[in-house]
Amino acid sequence: MRYAWRLVVLAVLVAIAILLPRFVSDFRLVQFSYVGIYFIAIYGLNLLTGYSGQVSLGHGAFMAIGGYTSAILVVHHGWTDWKTIPVAGLVAGVAGLAFGIPALRLSGLYLALATFALAVSMPALIKKWESQTGGSSGLLLPTFHSNVWYYRTTWITAGILFVLGWLLLQTKFSRAWRAIRDSEIAAASMGVNLALYKTAAFGASALFAGVAGALLVILSFSANPGSFPVQLSIYLVVGLAVAGLGSLVGLLVGAAFVEYVQVWAPEISKSPGVPTFAFGAALVLVMYLLPGGAAGLVGRLHNSVAHWRGMRFLAVLLLAFALVAGASGATRTDPGVSSGSIKIGGTVPLSGVAAAYASVGRGADAYFKYWNDTRGGVNGRKIDYDFVDDAYDPAQTVEQTRKLVQQDQVFAIVNSLGTEQNLAVRGFLNQLKVPQLFVATGATEFGADYKHYPWSIGFLPSYTAEGIIYGKYVRANKPTAKIAVLYQADSFGGELLGGLKKGLGPLAGRVVKSVSYDPTASDVYSQISTLKASKANTLMIFATPKYAIQAYIQANKLGWRPTVFVSQVSSASNIMKISASSSNNLTTGSISIADFKDPTNPQFAKDKTMKLYRQILAKYQPGADASDVYHVYAMAVAYTFIDALRHAGNPPTRAGMMRAVTHLNVKNPFVLPGITVTTTPTDRFPIKQAQLEVWKGSSWKLIGKPLSARG
Fold this sequence. Notes:
The chain is of the alpha/beta class. The chain is built from 27 helices and 16 strands. The strands form five sheets. Strands 4-3-5-6 form a four-stranded parallel sheet, with helices on both faces. A four-stranded parallel sheet has the order 8-7-9-10, with helices on both faces.
């Protein structure tokens, strides 16, 4: 009877899996694909922990090995992505066997700590082999598929591995693992080869993890250290705890728990700590209600007198879930556009190391709300702007952008922040012909690569152009300077450094030392110490706000007081005031560039636009820091978007929007006088000028006139 029950459940699940693409939206298919990936990974962890009793808190590390194997084969060796999946599994499996040999001496808590150490060290190892892994920036896969392809590939792979795992558990390996789990001493006395079977468990488990990692990279079309954080290993253990031991349905529930609780927790509140608390609370609740995990619930349903009712209930529940998901994912023929509104979205770091940029989303949101209330939107359609948190993590950018496009059906992605973050979704958006508008980065690619990515456009001058301006200024005013450079280890920092040397021209040798930092690092104190040791008298800080503040603080602690140039992305007055108060006013005399009116600059104290800016911010973002120029930047973006939308047709179309943003000629009131926002189909840099400014202790003072900012 038990065998018949399992066959019926399996048949129901297979039928649902086959029919699901007909009923659910594209985004729901992506979510179900993630469930499949977690299913594979948790199944592998079940072999190691559930059957052989070896506790692992580092399963995510083996996923990273498989994921990077796949990415390296695709990017560096031209492999077709799906062909890398078995290779990724084998490579991770071999790594698991290699790790399992020294781990033979460990058990219990010590083994858990050893595997956890592997998970913690994996991001550093990835960054160490930058030539292959792409370092902090990672690798972007050049190929994209339909979401149905991703879904089918994931679940066909999951089905194959499930069968292989089931066959493995019918062999003597299963009996040996169970014996080891119950008592290693007893197992050894029975003749079980502990070394062989414990190592085999690690290898088999890692193979499953490697396949899951490869699928994760293919699904997110990128691999970077943020794709495999330490938390991933913890989540997989949580999923196994929810699943229980030895049940297909239990494993599915555990995988769904990991995927959907991560999605739902931030919806409760975006306040710091609340999503994590919600995730933990959900786990505690499940453990309290289902002490044996989902597998225990299935067992109780089977053993009850009315087990057939339980089975019927389970089947109905799963079918209802699929149908509800399908209903919620219904699509429209004109994405994001209705008779009364137009929906747009973007990603902004509301948390994490770059949370200082949250104002980029909030400022735009405030201006859109002001425009809706005072002008009724554009052509009778109010602008519904949804900016979501990606924590400055490209992997989260991919997931959140997919949600915005395929579930929320936005008309365009607007004002998303970050170089690597926008690069991670550029190919995806261009493939779907979704406008990627006014990305908040000065990366040259978004203006120069329009032939390959015609649906993308930036807003700021390029980082290369910014670096050139600093180089030319030094060449003209400080030709004997000895220059030290702190730069972020990605294309943002690399472009600024390259532009600086280009602007210095024959004086490029005046750069006596340049040191990079990882964008996820805790601090840059050692880098500043190294730069001070170079005896430079000029410091270029090409860093995001957190690290720019740290650079000022550490330089002051070391008694180093060079002339400082700070990149535009960290030059907001509120950031400079924090740096000044913590560095004995080392900021005084710092030089940067500006494109937008600074709300702290006395020159604009009576400016009509700045008065309106403060009114808008006070009404629609109460409590926001009005001295933060990123709010002004965001309103400049919103103003330009509205101008383009007015010329995108009625009703607007995505193609019409791209025509509009490539024919801009806007006198934007939030931009500095003398700078006009212009584009053509072959000139995708909306802002092509910038003005130097010097920090006078409490505010910036503009120097000279606007300069060309072409890279």
